[in-house]
Prior knowledge:
Elements: H1 3-14, H2 27-37, H3 42-46, H4 49-55, H5 59-62, H6 67-73, H7 80-98, H8 106-110, H9 117-128, H10 137-146, H11 154-164, H12 170-183, H13 202-205
Amino acid sequence: MDRDSLIVSTLIEMYPDACCALFFNNPFELLIATILAAQATDKSVNQITPALFSRYPTPADFLTLSQEELEKEIKTIGLYKNKARHILATCKILVEEHGGDVPANREALEALPGVGRKTANVVLSNAFNIPTIAVDTHVFRVSNRLGLADSKDLWKTEQALMEKVPESLWSQLHHCLIFHGRQVCHARKPACDGCQLALHCKMYLGADGSK
């Protein structure tokens, strides 16, 4: 087994239950939760979405709100003013162009306000079981530290992962990298000494391949 395959298989063994941390029951809830989670923690989003979705379960229900009213509903989330505007604009498009449903294709998703490639990947993977690798801050940091990628660019990092990892493992690897980033490979002080991947990690071993 080559080094990259060993890293991937070890991550999957380490985090067999890795999954999406956002609370959702359907594609629409995941879409809104993911928009809210941009530059915010999943925990902070999960604190407000159950009640929010209970009161406003569909795009049409959201459209009964003014922007100011929606802002009050999500004011504990960072960038809530922009997110409220994006969510209402997105709901309008969903109702007028997609019959109130969330589209299951990238082009249509990325045409929605507040939805970029990462958000589209999250929705495609977790709501529609379409293999993708959403590169968030954890995936970007961990994959480049380990040496699965070698880029300062999110898209190039995603490309590197897709080239090295079988498509059937893309979604699972995405979640494993996030779990590893949250639990071990922290941004400021990674717990390298207790990491099962240390002896295969590019950052830990250094440029010459030895600690």
